[in-house]
Amino acid sequence: MQMSQYGNAPRAGRRYRVPMPEVIVLGLGSMGSAAAYTLAARGLDVVGVDRFTPPHDRGAHAGGTRIIRMTYAEGAAYVPLLHRTYQLWWELEQESEVRLVTPTGGLNLGRPESATVSGALTSARAHGLAYELLDADAIRRRFPQFRPAEDEVAVLDTAAGFVTPEIAISTILGLAERAGAKLRFGTAAVSYRETSSGVSVSLADGDELHAERLIIAPGAWAPGLLGDLPLRVERRVQHFWRPGPGFTPAEFPAWIWAADGLTAYGVPEHEGQVKAAFHAPPTPEQIDADTGAAPPRPDEEQPVRDWLRPRLPTLAGAAYAGGKQCTYTLTPDENFILGAISGRVVVAAGFSGHGFKFVPVVGEILAGLATDVVPPYDLALFSPARFR
Ligand SMILES: Cc1cc2nc3c(=O)[nH]c(=O)nc-3n(C[C@H](O)[C@H](O)[C@H](O)COP(=O)(O)OP(=O)(O)OC[C@H]3O[C@@H](n4cnc5c(N)ncnc54)[C@H](O)[C@@H]3O)c2cc1C
Questions:
Q1: Which of the four pLDDT bands, split at 50, 70 and 90, describes residue 19?
Q2: Domain-by-domain residue ranges, the chain?
Q3: pTM above 0.85, yes or no
Q4: Is 63 near ligand 1, meaning CB less than 6 Å away?
Q5: What is the 123 CA–ligand 1 centroid distance (Å)?
Q6: 127/81 Cα distance (integer angstroms)
Q7: Domain spanning 23-61+166-230+333-387: which CATH class is it, in words?
Q8: Distance, CA 364 to ligand 1 centroid (Å)?
Q9: How would residue 326 be classed by pLDDT, with cut points 50, 70 and 90?
Q10: Is residue 101 within a helix (H) or strand (E), and if so which, with residue range?
């Protein structure tokens, strides 16, 4: 087992020790790191375990940036969680003095009837969010990098931006350790079982962990641990370009665009590179987490360039800076799985390619569920029971 990379920072948040259940967090990537931190900051005894040392290239979090936005085509029911997640990202930034969120504004582009546009509008109207509806002329005037067709529109989400996932996970794990969480890296949990007094988790290095409660947040390894949930793991490739001036966060928004039967997205310049990729590629490849997603192939750049050419011509003509593989763990309805599967075990899985922005609020929800604190949200949409 590797030692923690986060040092022996002083422990905070443990002055008011109360008899609370102890919790094991299995998987310390995006969601697990936030759960471990929230629990430890509340003074609970937390043990976390990860098969690697997050952040890492095999995680669903790899790739430098993740879009955060308030308008939510995936469902207006996510908006209360989004309000809270923005607040918690801000609190994490205050606590750590590390910048995690870069505001850029965001465009949801497509024909008015597309799910990307109509869903974003529905969520904005249902929750009184700040937005502007731009026609094609207005898009071109405000954001000359974009060339929408005459019948396309955009919902401008002024709250949107991007989060830096690797920096966020390092920061959150550092805060978790500082708050007293015991984190074990480089050893996989091979199985878990409930006992009369709690939960036991067997580790690949032969150790066994015991606690009153267990949170399972294994990303792409969920199918192996949670075989009765209908999850499929697919490979995705993120592409990076160097288009020159005009693409900084101050000039160029994050974007999601439904066109030609495909949905693509992009993030403004971060560390000298601009991201653009397909959310759902024409031929998705199902993979196994243990095998991992294969690195980008030379023939994968051209289809993205071709899709971009009429829409973001400067980006389509830019120098290619490389690609990065990653994994989506998808549920059949593409809503998360977030809830208890027994009196002692809580699951966070199936984030379906849109989970990162929710990391701190999911951590808070998991911490609540593992300690019998009812989260103040309607979580029916995410119930593991919907698939049983
Ligand atoms: C290309 C791409 C683009 C994306 N874009 C966005 C975006 O713009 N906005 C957004 O909000 N979201 C986005 N997402 C989705 C988001 O990144 C994921 O939903 C999120 O990272 C999932 O977090 P997770 O905790 O489930 O998985 P991970 O972060 O991968 O964490 C799971 C952890 O569990 C560990 N683990 C697994 N099995 C075991 C075991 N048996 N024992 C111990 N440890 C174990 C793993 O090592 C890993 O560290 C994107 C995802 C991809 C791939």
A1: very low
A2: 23-61+166-230+333-387, 89-162+232-330
A3: yes
A4: yes
A5: 25
A6: 12
A7: alpha beta
A8: 17
A9: very high
A10: strand 101-103
